Amino acid sequence: MRSDAARDARLPVARIRELLDDPDRGVAASAASAAANPALPPEGMHRILDLAGVPEIRVNHRTSGC
Fold it and tell me: Buried b / exposed e across 1-37, counting CB within 10 Å, b at 16+?
């Protein structure tokens, strides 16, 4: 299944990005799986969170180590 492949950590990062950028709503399940792929670099994760409107969490000396 396509969404199973999208979750596979062996999937090349370029393919993960293609799934995330695909405008076809029929690819939505695969894109969601790609977003959860542990191989997705941090900048890709930040981009997804930015597009979703998730606010950035600032870490300071009181919250570090939690």
Answer: eebeebbeeebeeeebeebbeeeeeebeebbebbbeb
With beta carbons less than 8 A apart as the criterion, state whether 51 and 30 touch.
no
Taking residues 46-52, what's their average pLDDT?
82
**How many angstroms separate the CA atoms of 7 and 5, rounded?**
5
Angle between helices 42-52 and 13-21 (to 10 degrees): 10
Nearest Cα to Cα of residue 31 among 9, 49, 48: 48
User: Token match 């950590």: residue?
Assistant: 9
16, 42 contact by CB (below 8 A): no
Between 41 and 63, residue with greater pLDDT: 41
The first and second tokens of residue 30, run together, are: 């695969």
